[in-house]
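Here is one chain, start to finish.
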Amino acid sequence: MASSTPRSLNARKQPIQGRAAVTLDAVFEATIQLLLRDGPHQLTTTRVAHRAGVSVGTMYQYFPHKQALIYALNDRYLKALAEKIEVVCREHHGKPAADMIEALIDTYWRAKTERSDVTRALYRSVADMDNSALIEAFAIRADAATTAMLATASDTTFADLALVNRTLVTVIFGTVRNAFERNLTGAVAEDLRRELLKMCRAYLTHHSHN
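Its structure:
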C-alpha cells in the first residue's frame, strides 16, 4: 500500500497565483540558507519569515510549524530531481542501452553533487521525520521513466525488463548516494563513476537479447 504524507506535515495551502509562488520560492530559499548556516535545530518559521521578507502570518498560512516547512522543501527537491530524470530518460528513448545508462548515471551524479552542501543539509533536516511518502513518490516516477526508456533501447531487449531496471536503478542510486555520503570528490569520485558505468554495462550485456 502506498505511503501517505503524515497529516501533521501537510502544508496548509498550495500557491494559486504567481505572486504566491514567488513568495514560496523566497521562503524555500531562505530555509536553505538558514539550514546551511545554522542547521535544522536552530531553524524556526519566524527566522525563515524574516529572512525571506514575508510576514509571520503569511508564513503560517502555508506552514503551521517548521516540520511542515522542511517536509515541503524536501518534497520540492525530490520532485525537481524526478523531473530531471524524466527529462533525460525521454531524451534517450531509442538510443543504445549503454548510452541510456551513462546518461542516467551522469544526471543523478550531477544532481547530487552540484550543490552537495544543500543536499547534505536536506538529508540532515529529515533525519527524525517520516518522509517515506516522499521517497516512494520519487521512486515511482524514477522507475516509470527509466523502465520506459530501457524498453525503447535500439540495440537490445530484456526478458525481464522490470528486474533489470530495478537492479540498475538500485545500484546506480545507491552507489551515488554512498559516494556523496562519504564525501568522495575529484579523481576518486570520477574513478568510481567510471567503474559504476563499467559494472552497469556488463550487467546490460549479460541480460541483453539482440
